[in-house]
Amino acid sequence: MLGPYITIKPKKPIVKLASLLIAILGLCGFVIPAKAGSTPGNGHPTPRPNIILIMTDDQGWGDLSLHGNAMIDTPVLDQLALSGARFARFYVSPVCATTRASLLTGRYHPRTGIIGLRPGLDTIRSEEITIAEMLKSAGYVTGCFGKWHNGTHFPYTPPGQGFDEFLGFSAGHWSNYFDTNLAHNNQTIKTKGYITDVLTNSALEFIKRNQDQPFFCYIPYNAPHVPIQVPDRYFQKYKQRGLDDMHAGIYGMCENIDDNVGRILDLLHQLSIKDNTVVMFLTDNGPFSSRFNAGLRGKKKQLAEGGVRSPLFVRWPGKIRPGTRVRALAADIDILPTIAELCGISKPKTLPLDGISLVPLLTGKTDSWPKRMIFSFYAREGIRGMTPYSVRTERYRLINSGHDNQLFDMISDPGQSENIADIEPARTTELIIAYQAWFKDVTQNLTGRTPIPIGYTEVPTVDLPSTQGQRSKGLKFSGRAPGWNHDWIVEWPSNAESISWTIDVVKPGTYEVGLLYTCKIDDVGATLQIDIGHHQLTTTLREAYDPRPIPSPDRMRRQVAYEKRWATLTFGRVKLQSGPTKLWLRVVNIPNQQAMQFKSVRIKKVD
């Protein structure tokens, strides 16, 4: 079990970063980060490069035509790979939140407070320094356009983690990709169009506005993650190739991403900033379904090669030689130190890094690259007992499922067809011991679920989602994969049930407390009770409200909850002091079969 709840409100360190001056070694065409104060031959400081970091969601290694998939068209990404460096063995986590944490901080995700996917266990600690914070301190303007999944409440959202502009969503997935509501900074806005197009539109506007100053543009697309939704022209194209609805939808979403990446690259050319912009592309984990994966075993949530190998393409015209192939081991933890070196930041003021800069590999200096091990594990509900894990070396992959050990020679057996753990027991033991030491190190400061902060001026109204509460066993979620974004408690069958949250009151004052619910006419009359701090509030559910879920243009049936409209019910106001406290929701009287369907408690600071 994870440790007790705690409140974490450390101050982030003030970062003083060296300015970037890049000297170009013309004979080789490679990037050589310049020492502070250097200038090119004309005596003017070399401009710092812009950084565009693009990541897709659940796009596997095999979802690119470059990697041998004859059924999909991704010409832009294929050309991006060929126009710079592409990595053959670049690794991420088996699920998205953990990859994003490692990517943004340069640290293995358990160090950042993130354990896995589940709401409440997917929040980066506030003292972590992200790429955005590092670059912002060096004079960059920063923007994030897409899926965050590293904290759903301010200040754990992009506006609190170094991004000047944010359009997207902070939860683990989204339920509707057409004409949807998204967060713009700390406000919710209605958007028009398909979500990948909308996110790209905002990224393009960000680039246009900031073309005359160094910028960091992070574009974590949420496609091709489920639900499978894609404009007709993409879907019909792949249906005409004889693919089923799932493959037609996924490949259509991937081609739409490819087109949007093309729009970004075209704009760089139009603005004449192509040569001073580093473009990086990767994915967050393997494919979520069993489909073409270039012969790699495994998919999302699995620790085999196909679940954790990601493409990494890095383009910087004139600095990184086209056609550069990299076979050395690299990982998501290496992105931050790589960007730091590319931007001339010799000593980034972050917490201790696990990653190392990939610049030597980008410049062809591979002789001194260290032999290393890449570690990963998958914890669905938090760390309890044996957590499945994997260790990757230059030659081997060890997988411990919690029940047995599997060892594969990845050079002679890249498809992982023969388990040689019994044939090489010494090697197996060596890797197990290495993992145990690593795990002890990276998990030593784990503290459990992050309390939900309330009272920030930037976000006066905060929802406490049912998915992030600690609930009794009788409360069930609606979706077949319960507890994800937009899910809700589908019934409240007895007064023995309860749900609670740990909150952190960052500013004392008066707060209005209510909740979001639906209720059938036959269930009207239940008495609800909220206990918060030393206060107790009660009210009666007197109005029925029972709308159907919002229709969604899925290409195939989803396994997660649909969106739904909710009624609000106000309990009253309370005065709260600063600090952590518990909030409990109970139903003390149920006159009929059940009380309600419940989405979240809502707290608003009113003075």
Mind telling me the C-alpha Rg?
Answer: 25 Å
CATH class designation of the largest domain: Alpha Beta
Provide the domain count. Answer: 3
**Average pLDDT number:** 90
CATH topology of the largest domain: Alkaline Phosphatase, subunit A
How many strands, what sense, and barrel or not for the largest sheet?
A: 10 strands, mixed
Through-space gap between termini: 38 Å
CATH superfamily of the largest domain: Alkaline Phosphatase, subunit A
- Number of separate strands: 31
Task: Characterise the protein shown here.
The chain is 18% helix and 26% strand. With 607 residues, the chain is α+β, with helices and mostly antiparallel strands. The longest helix has 26 residues, at 245-270. Helix 4 packs parallel to helix 6 (245-270) and helix 5 packs across helix 6. It has a ten-stranded mixed sheet, with helices on both faces. Strands 20, 22, 25, 27, 28 and 30 form a six-stranded mixed sheet that branches. Strands 16-17-18-19 form a four-stranded antiparallel sheet, covered by helices on one side. It has ten helices and 31 strands. The protein folds into three domains: 23-367, Alkaline Phosphatase, subunit A (3-Layer(aba) Sandwich); 375-442, Arylsulfatase, C-terminal domain; 452-605, Galactose-binding domain-like (Jelly Rolls), CATH 2.60.120.260. The two termini are 38 Å apart.
